[in-house]
Design a protein that fits this description.
The protein has 159 residues and is mainly beta. It has one helix and ten strands. Strand 5 (76-85) and strand 6 form a beta hairpin.
């Protein structure tokens, strides 16, 4: 009985180490999602993210993440992303066209009850101690978009 407990403990410890090793990525410095009402994300509802202060100066890749349910009525989504780099006091505005469905009608994202997507946005240079302020809103013809559960921002340091 004691031997099987040790074996089980050993297996659990190995599994935990494996999860921790794959989950931790030193290059990912920020990864956060903001929730939107599944009943509808209002065009005037801006989602805000504050990154930093970063601990290492360098080039960073920005990505926008989406989690979308089956009730989303369109094959794409257009987002307006505004960024302010605290150290340079710059405002940069991007329009991001997100294709959610391929030409065969299949969801491009992964998932069962929701599809998850990750779209590259841009590369930004940040100095040590800098903060980055990012806001995201949709730019679709319909004012209220149903089915969008979460919108996220990921920042990865590049070498």
């Amino acid at each position: 009985m004691a031997n099987s407990k040790h074996t089980l403990l050993y297996i659990v410890a190995l599994a935990l180490c494996g999860v921790l090793m794959t989950a931790c990525n030193e290059k990912t410095v920020y990864y956060h999602y903001e929730h939107t009402p599944m009943a509808g994300w209002d065009k005037n509802d801006t989602l805000s993210f504050v990154v930093g202060p970063v601990t290492v100066s360098g080039h960073y890749q920005e990505d926008i993440g989406l989690r979308i349910g089956g009730e989303y009525p369109f094959t794409g989504l257009t987002l307006i992303v505004e960024q302010k780099n605290e150290s340079k006091q710059l405002l940069h505005v991007d329009t991001l066209a997100c294709n959610l469905i391929d030409e065969r009608g299949n969801a491009e994202g992964r998932g069962l009850s929701q599809s998850q997507y990750l779209f590259p946005l841009s590369t930004v240079d940040l100095q040590e101690g800098a903060r980055l302020y990012v806001s995201v809103r949709h730019d679709m013809k319909r004012d209220i978009l149903p089915g969008i559960a979460d919108v996220g921002l990921r920042l990865v340091r590049r070498h």
